[in-house]
Inverse folding.
């Protein structure tokens, strides 16, 4: 098994998702950590003269802490640098930016999502500090 620059062995990543990463498309990092199959729970309510059964679908899990984000981003980076090894140091720089934001802004997840969505649409460097200055990415 080939081991990437960022990690030892990660769980297998879906081929469709790997292709998206290698094509520099936006991906939801939480899909690299959590199983996104919707789960259904059967809810049974009893009243005096009737029983009601319903299915309740759970929402997919999302990343809410920096440790989980780092784990997901490492998996992303492991695949990404297999095609773009020259960007490895920029990915480390980007991780540092997100770690700093996580300590100083409640909107760090929003920033990460918006930046990676923007990067999928136009050429932006991972390690360019100027993207910190895009206030719209932190406004929500």
């Amino acid at each position: 098994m080939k081991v990437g620059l960022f990690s030892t062995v990660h769980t297998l990543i879906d081929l469709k998702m790997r292709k998206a990463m290698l094509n520099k498309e936006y991906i939801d990092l939480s899909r690299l950590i959590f199983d996104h199959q919707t789960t259904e729970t059967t809810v049974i309510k009893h009243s005096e003269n009737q029983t009601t059964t319903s299915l309740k679908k759970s929402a997919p899990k999302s990343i809410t802490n920096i440790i989980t984000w780092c784990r997901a981003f490492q998996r992303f980076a492991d695949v990404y640098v297999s095609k773009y090894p020259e960007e490895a140091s920029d990915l480390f720089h980007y991780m540092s930016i997100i770690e700093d934001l996580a300590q100083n802004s409640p909107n760090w997840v929003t920033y990460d999502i918006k930046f990676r969505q923007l990067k999928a649409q136009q050429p932006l460097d991972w390690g360019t500090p100027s993207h910190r200055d895009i206030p719209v990415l932190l406004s929500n």
User: Anything to note?
Assistant: Residues 15-35+61-138 form one domain.
